[in-house]
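Listing 4. Sequential folding, example run.
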Amino acid sequence: MERVPVTKEGYETLKGELDKLKRKERPQNIKAIEAARAHGDLSENAEYAAAKDRQSFIEGRIGELEYKLAHADVIDTAKLPKGRIVFGSRVVLENTETGEEVEYQLVGPDESNIEKGRISISSPLGKVMIGKKPGEELKLKAPGGKRSYEIVKIL
């Protein structure tokens, strides 16, 4: 059984989504199925078909979230070393070609969100960052082409 690293915040987000699905979405969908059944012939009932499709999605997502939470390895980012990049580290990188600085946090695959500056440890950039220290240069092949960064600091 493979453990998947996740931050406390990421774990709580997954837990919150699971709770919402179980306590709100599932009961609402059950009521929608009951209401659609009351309309009669199920073979030509679009509301019933849509509610059953929604039920399938909800149950699948609940199973997926329960699996992810059961296999989560929650990492306390407050206790991380600051001398090298590890899971959960917040880092400032400088693009060596443009001079542009970017800030990222290295997170698990289920937490990544580039708009929020959270990149996955399994991404091309995430993979080359692990274990590196400030001042080191990162070279990688990304889907958009070759990139080069210098690690400015670890926050």
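-- end of first protein; second protein begins --
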Amino acid sequence: MLENKNEIIKCLNEGGVIAYVTDTVWGLGCLPDNEQAVKKIYEIKKREAQKPLILMSNEIYNLLDYVKPIPKIGQKLIKEFFPGALTIVTDKSEKTPDYITSNLSTVGIRVPDNIVFQEICSIIPGHVLATTSANLSHQPSAKTYEQALENMNGLADIIIPDYGYLAKGLESTVCGVMNNELRIFRQGAIIINQ
């Protein structure tokens, strides 16, 4: 489906930033081990330094090296809702750089249920993107390709078409699972009762 696979891989390897569709809203991402590319995302969005990025992939297995063993309550949520509109915040491992998590000891992980996003992850080095929504800080998230173009034209290095696999337009639910306790940080597309 993706027409410009080599261009996407080259862009990310050279520290570029890409915009893409997910199952919720449009995302903006780069390779997690490239500090300059992460800085570029903060500059593009005019994002506050204390707001961390999250890590997303096409498979949970690709994300496990970035976190400490996930508590049982988190594993249960992953089985039930991944892939889907749920971001789980848990203790990060040594592999997750501080510049992604704003020096916090936790990181959010997610596996979106969108075939275009999953194909992007399947072809890129490491299969993981450090990511956030494709909009300027404090502006509404991009819900369509047109909005992503409007928000990110001239800012993101590549804006990948959605090939008809549209974002649903509602942000992911964000919940923390530290010390096997569940905390809802943001109710989004998936309703979770504490």
